[in-house]
Amino acid sequence: MTSIIGDTSLCAAILVAAGAVLLSVAGVRFDSPGYLRAARWSIGIFALLMTLASAALLTALLRSDFRFEYVAGYTERALPVGYKFAAFWAGQEGSLLLWAWMLAVMATIALPGLRRLNPVEHAGAVAVLALVCGFFAALMLFAANPFVMTDGPAVADGRGLNPMLQDPGMIIHPPVLFLGYAGFTVPFAVLVGVLIANRHANHWIAVTRRWLLASWLFLTAGIVIGCWWAYIELGWGGYWAWDPVENASLLPWLTSTALLHSMMVHQHRGMFKVWTAVLIALSFILCIFGSYLTRSGVISSVHAFAPSLIGTFFLVFLVVLVAGTAGLLLWRRRALAPEHQLEGLISREGAFLLGNVLLLLMMATTLVGTIFPLISGVFVDEAITVGPPFYNRVVAPMGVLLVAVMALGPVLAFGRSAAGKIAQSLRGPATGAAIVTAIVAFSGTHSVWALVCVAITALGTFAVIVDFTRTVSARRRSTGETWPTASARLIDRDHRRYGGRLAHLGLMMAVIGIAGSSLFSTDDLFRLKPGETTRVGPYSMTFAGLEQLRMANYTAFEATVNLTDNRGRTVTLRPQCRFYDTWSEKPNTEVAIRSTLRHDLYVSVVGWENLGAITAIEVRINPLVMWIWIGGFVAGLGGLFCMLPRLLPDHHRAPVVESGRASRPKTLPAAATPVRTARLRAERST
After folding, report:
1. Phi and psi of 78, rounded to 5°?
2. How far apart are CA 41 and CA 189, in angstroms?
């Protein structure tokens, strides 16, 4: 019965998606709001069908129904319930169903907002959403069906989940990442609709802004959670290995980060329209490309799936997307002409432009490095793989330069007058950055890269503080408000600006963490007997012994390690080496970590003799790693803050402030009509 429900839902979903496309076209062709309404309803029905299929698969997983190949391949009876849920997206078929379900739900949520578009734009957006939804339904039915039954009688027990996936990170990371991937479909659909309609207006940016922010937020959170998962689970002491599948998630993050900045200039200055359109298309296409790399088997990766027909489906879809989008952008290029020209490179627009160029260069370099084995395989017999040293030497310096541009952002104004103000605006932040860098240098840090990172992040932090202080002071002079009131009302007036500042601060925190852990990490291997003590950095480490533990579906060998710092405080760590019942040939390391703001003490069991008579324990000291997770959280908080509506009433008309300089409020022309006034207010509110 479960198989029938699943297959029927997928078949019906394909028909419903095709019907939505036809109804959208008919709605424009015959100028019929009824057809468009029916197309919207079809998207909702598609979401219900995907929900039904997802419920069927989840039921089979929770019941351990091993008649299904997918259930037998990714679960076992002893698997904890939480990981049975996670098995839903552990394999090819289930993860595609999760993506399709999330996409369908997001498309349904987006439908009311699409009514703000004109009929042609609306119909084009709905048709694109239906096409993408239909692609995923067809992909599952014909190439990755999670409801395939096993040949012959059902097995007594399943293979179980890969040990590396039996971690809380598996429950959180993939769904969050897929939310980011699926979310970029909505802005892409709106873009296609707008280009088909050939309109020059900027109203559609307001329709897509929250979707872009939400997608970027989920993608950022997914990447940070993935880094944390790799750090605590794989036992190698790192969090980013420049693995092809890791790179696949980084590519759309780089383009979407550039997109958020282009969108600001597009909406407020009528510039960067081509940048905005191209970056929206690239962000969506790179999500599909990343799935192609992961699921086609064309690259080798610890995260990648085995080769299958799925890769062919994704490749064809990718070719159609690239060709169709490129043709549409060229066809409607006149609609993307800027309303104003760039007046100077030393301005906020110039900084955004330079930032976009750097982000695209980083994306292109990472893309070439990721697919280099495919490129080299055409010319030589053995494919050449590009490793982390290449990315660290090429991409990392561009990232540092990007952070430097980001640090200058708060002190730059829009327009040609920005160049004349920059020297005065930089005086305070540059002085503070020089003092902090000198203190760090005299404290014993002599790494050039470390000092460069400290200088840039200090400059960016002081720039945000100085800019905010000047702006609050200008508001206080204008309104007479107290510091807390002026600060709260100023932030509430422009969530996007100060949410962006908060996100920048988070990224700078992460840069400090990345620099510290990359440049100053140390590791040692100790062979210890029970009761033996050794020195590890600022700690005295005593090995208490090795114990064998039996859990639900694995056997663990757990070491007990006592750490005592210079103040006499003791903490106990218990790293493990696990042997899972159905994966006994692959021992899995579970590290124990002592985290502080200064460093992480990272302890893992490497091996033992005579049941713990001598145990090999590896200890790493990773400085400042905690700041990566804090910075990722702060950056995400900034993105979330950008999405908030205005919360506080503002009884004063504060001056318009650019980099701390007050000017008179903008007023309407004397001859403004009520309609003109209402339209201007609406534009400001969006």
Report:
1. -85, 0
2. 17
- Condensed to tens digits (0 to 9), the pLDDT of residues 363-391 reads 999 999 988 888 887 777 677 788 888 99
Q: Which residues contact 400 (CB under 8 A, 6 or more apart)?
A: 449, 452, 453, 456, 511
Interacting residues of 88 by C-beta distance below 8 A, sequence separation 6+: 54, 57, 58, 61, 94, 97, 98
Question: Phi-psi category of 444—alpha, beta or left, where left has phi over 0 and alpha has psi -120 to 50?
Answer: left
Q: Which residues pair with 590 in a beta bridge?
A: 576
Residues 6+ apart with CB under 8 A from 533: 540, 541, 542, 543
Q: Which residue has the higher pLDDT, 656 or 414?
A: 414
The closest of 640, 374, 294 to 499, measured between CA atoms, is 640
What torsion, rounded to 10 degrees, do the Cα atoms 530, 536, 540, 545 define? -20
Q: How far is CA 40 from the centre of its chain?
A: 29
- State how beta strands 588-590 and 576-580 pair: antiparallel
In this structure, are residues 115 and 12 in contact, taking their beta carbons and an 8 Å threshold? no
β pairing state of 599-609 and 614-623: antiparallel
User: How far is CA 310 from each of CA 87, 140, 278, 298, 575, rounded to the nearest angstrom?
Assistant: 19, 9, 27, 11, 39
Token pair 């694109």 is at which residue?
Answer: 128
Tokens of 32: 């019929």
Indicate the pTM of the whole model.
0.89
Locus of tokens 């990718």: 318
C-beta separation of 525 from 606 below 8 A: yes
Q: State how far the Cα of 399 lies from the Cα of 356, in Å rounded to an integer.
A: 12
Query: What crossing angle do the helices spanning 33-62 and 92-114 adopt, rounded to 10°?
Result: 150
Burial 283-301 (b: 16+ CB within 10 A, else e): bbbbbbbbbbbbbbebbeb
Q: Kindly tell me the number of DSSP H helices and DSSP E strands found in the chain.
A: 20, 12
Instruction: Write phi, then psi, for 579 (nearest 5 degrees).
Output: -120, 105
Alpha-carbon span 403 to 398, nearest angstrom: 9
Q: How far is CA 141 from CA 530, 610, 616, 679, in A?
A: 57, 53, 50, 48
Block residue for tokens 């590890």: 536
User: What three-state secondary structure class fits 450?
Assistant: helix
Reported as a single tens digit per residue, the pLDDT across 63-122 is 999 999 999 999 999 999 999 999 999 988 999 999 999 999 999 999 998 888 889 999
Contact status, residue 90 vs residue 162, Cβ threshold 8 Å: yes
Identify residue 82 by its one-letter amino acid code: G
Count of other CB atoms within 10 angstroms of residue 343: 17
Read off the amino acid at residue 475. Answer: R
